[in-house]
Amino acid sequence: LKTTIFNKFKMYDDAKEIAEHALQLAARERKFDCCFEIWTTLGSVYKNMGNFTLSKICLKTALRFGSKVTRKKHLADNRKELGILYVHEGELTHAQALLEKAVDISKKYNDSLVQCESLYCLSECYSRQDLDNNALLCLEQAHEIAEKHSFDHQEQKITLKLSKMYKKIDPFKHKKYHDRFYQLSLNINEGGTEIVNLNQKGHAEPPDS
Questions:
Q1: pLDDT score recorded for residue 67
Q2: Smallest Cα–Cα separation from 44: which of 32, 57, 35?
Q3: Dihedral class, residue 192 (left if φ above 0, else alpha if ψ from -120 to 50, else beta)
Q4: pTM of this prediction?
């Protein structure tokens, strides 16, 4: 849990230190679920640091425990993180398969946050293959989940992309998502919360109306 929190707040050195210590304890006590989750989280930490090679090693190491994992919902997060790496590397067929699996697993086990994030990442994978209709469908589904569960940071990123994609094909939806993005940005800033980009560094800029 501490590793996840430190990762979220970009305290990567602290996250790595805690994860490495926790791995030793989990391996010694043969807690396979913990080993899987820690390796997956460590992979996410390295991804956020920009070290994609070590990230992939960690995520694939986690998969060695996959058959022994009892909390199957956590398999989705691993597939999502690996899918993001393969999108970054341009291996889109492999990325698509992983992200589709992440969506299926997270949906099956009612992990709404991972399902939402996996759909967003899958939309990017489709976009890079010029499958814009598929990308829009994923984004609409992700937006419905984010709005329902008040995932404001995720919804902000999703509405930004939806607004951009609809700009030339549907002025009504473009305005709808543009306005929603703007409102979310105000709400997040007024709450003193950092605007989070799901998969890359930097802050989102509002699209042209």
A1: 87
A2: 57
A3: left
A4: 0.83
